[in-house]
Specification:
CATH class of the largest domain: Alpha Beta
CATH architecture of the largest domain: 2-Layer Sandwich
Shape: globular
Strand content: 15-25%
Order of helices and strands: HHHHHHEEEEEEH
Helix content: 40-55%
Radius of gyration: 17 Å
Oligomer: single chain
Number of helices: 7
CATH topology of the largest domain: Yope Regulator, Chain: A
Length: 180
Amino acid sequence: MATQEEMLQSMIDNLPEKTGKSLVDWLKVTKSCGLEKHGLIVKMLKTDHGVTHGFANLIASKTLETGEDIDLVAAQYSGAKAGLVPIYDTLIAYVITLGQDIEVAPKKTSVSLRRKKQFALITPATKTRIDLGISLKDEPAIGRLLSGNAMCSHKVRLETVGEIDGDVKAWIKLAYERAG
């Protein structure tokens, strides 16, 4: 299973092939645009340059780095939420088996899983639970598959690795397929 650092480096290595520019070249673009907010930089990259969301998020994060190395995922799973790391790692390990086109995009409080659009969102909701948001529009909320919100139509609450069973994997896979 790839570590967060390895996945990040893989995205950086793939920038030239996927976007036509290296990270150094993108940083020249973003640092000269005058924008100072992450969301505005992401929007500019997507709108003006056709960069996909995951790569735009990466470039914007690197643009705003202060020299202090911040690992958003490590920050999410620090302290009282450290016990959730095995659940997160198991989810990521499964998701990356679904295809080469998956973008793992850490945010401040969650990790977005994208293809052409977001299909899942991993959020450490409490010190004992991860909420897995899944985009399954038009699917009924039944049993463990609860109603979600505007970001993801459904969610599943996960407190143990064992709860990432065949049902959860099937829901993730269906959302991934629909996002293509």
